[in-house]
């Protein structure tokens, strides 16, 4: 996907993960790349579906300690997973059921991660700045996830 990525960050992600297949390593570096590229973030990382418990478990991330388990349909993360739709929330305090893992969070984007019809989890990005994320950034983050899925089995 190297030649089709539309932003420097996404080209960097594709290059960073070239021929790398370890899920934890890839998600760790993906969260680090995102956290060092975007400004004004307080959390960037992943929740992964646990098919034994039927919940989302905390995955690799950058930021403060966070909620370990999120139920499907709960908060912004659980809603994105349940509905399999991107969530771009200008003010999380207006979102019914928002889960305040880090009280610094005011805006949030969550992108579902799916590969070959298999629901893997979500990318979650939080900011202390209200209305931090543009529609263009949501699209960039969706492409970030699409590239990531080409590097995980
Ligand atoms: N605020 C999220 C929970 C995850 S943390 O922000 C890392 C939510 O409402 O789903």
Based on secondary structure, the structural category is: alpha+beta
Supply the number of helical segments: 4
Gap between N and C termini: 16 Å
- Low-confidence runs (pLDDT<50, min 5 residues)? none
- Specify the helix fraction band: 25-40%
Order of helices and strands: HHEEEHEEEH
Mean pLDDT: 95
* Approximate shape: globular
- The beta-strand count equals 6
Largest sheet: 6 strands, antiparallel
Radius of gyration: 14 Å
How much strand content do the residues show?
25-35%
> Largest beta sheet: what is the strand line-up?
3-2-1-6-5-4
Instruction: Name the hetero compounds present.
Output: methionine sulfoxide
Secondary-structure map:
Layout: H1 8-16, H2 23-37, E1 43-50, E2 55-63, E3 69-71, H3 75-83, E4 87-89, E5 107-115, E6 118-127, H4 135-149
Antiparallel strand pairs: 1-2, 1-6, 2-3, 4-5, 5-6
The structure holds methionine sulfoxide.
């Amino acid at each position: 996907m190297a030649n089709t990525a539309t932003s420097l960050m996404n080209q960097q992600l594709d290059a960073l993960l070239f021929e790398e297949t370890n899920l934890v390593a890839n998600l760790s570096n993906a969260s680090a790349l995102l956290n060092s590229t975007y400004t004004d973030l307080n959390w960037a990382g992943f929740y992964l579906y646990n098919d034994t418990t039927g919940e989302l478990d905390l995955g690799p991330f950058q930021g403060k300690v966070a909620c370990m388990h999120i139920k499907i349909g709960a908060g912004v993360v659980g809603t994105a997973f349940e509905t399999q739709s991107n969530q771009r929330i200008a003010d999380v305090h207006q979102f019914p059921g928002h889960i305040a893992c880090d009280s610094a969070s005011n805006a949030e984007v969550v992108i579902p991660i799916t590969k070959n019809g298999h629901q893997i989890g979500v990318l979650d990005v939080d900011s202390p700045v209200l209305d931090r994320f543009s529609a263009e950034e949501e699209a960039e983050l969706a492409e970030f996830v699409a590239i990531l899925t080409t590097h995980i089995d």
